[in-house]
Design goal:
With about 170 residues, the chain is an alpha+beta fold. It has a domain of about 110 residues: Alpha-Beta Plaits, CATH 3.30.70.3270. The protein is built from 5 helices and 5 strands; from the N terminus they run H-E-H-E-E-H-E-E-H-H. The strands form 2 sheets. It has a 3-stranded antiparallel β-sheet with strand order 2-3-5. A two-stranded antiparallel sheet has the order 1-4. The longest helix has 20 residues. The chain is elongated and about 85 Å long. It starts with 14 loop residues before the first helix and ends with a helix. Bound molecules: iron/sulfur cluster (2 copies).
């Protein structure tokens, strides 16, 4: 590739621009040192940004009253997922009143676009997008979230209960 340089460009003088940039950087440095409360940046991870309650962060698989997964492995979330990042393996349940349940439920967090379609598609409030947004990991495998992480990670303190209750549904004949 050849680059054609016009005559004027050979005589360009950059020092003023460099000095201007240094002045702006120094000005903000001094200002921030003496007015820390007015800083527009946060000292992460000590300080964390407070997002709206509607924020769609890391997924949560909800549980029933007995702590088992609320998910019925209907596949609606996986079918609606535009990123095709949900993989479910369904199995029959030993309890005849439970039609199906997932023996494996995985979300590839590197493909997820946090659109919330899975949450909206679920008929039994079995999946939600919660307030957590940190997704740390050292290799690709760390970003495949399974049931343990989606439903029973320590931050969930034993699991988040679904709004849909089987007993109430049976009573209502749903
Ligand atoms: S938030 Fe969107 S992209 Fe992510 S798993 Fe749910 S449907 Fe798929
Ligand atoms: S999370 Fe909801 S939509 Fe997805 S398989 Fe389970 S019950 Fe169906």
């Amino acid at each position: 590739m050849s680059v054609v340089q016009r005559d004027g460009e050979t005589r360009k003088w950059y020092l003023l621009g460099v000095l201007g940039g240094l002045w702006i950087t120094g000005h903000h440095l001094i200002k921030n040192l003496f007015n820390r409360k007015q800083m527009i940046t946060l000292n992460y991870p000590e300080e964390k940004y407070e997002y709206s309650p509607r924020f769609k962060g890391n997924h949560v698989l909800t549980v029933k009253k007995d702590g088992s997964l609320r998910c019925t492995a209907c596949m609606l979330c996986a079918t609606n997922c535009p990123a095709e990042c949900i993989r479910i393996v369904a199995s029959e349940h030993e309890d005849p009143s439970v039609e199906k349940f997932p023996i494996s439920y995985e979300i590839d967090m590197l493909r997820c676009v946090f659109c919330g379609f899975c949450e909206e598609a679920c008929p039994v409030d079995a999946i939600r997008l919660g307030p957590e947004w940190q997704v740390p990991g050292l290799c690709g495998d760390n970003f495949i979230y399974g049931i343990d992480r989606l439903a029973y990670r320590p931050q969930l303190k034993g699991g988040i209960q679904s709004f849909v209750d089987d007993e109430e549904r049976h009573k209502a004949g749903i």
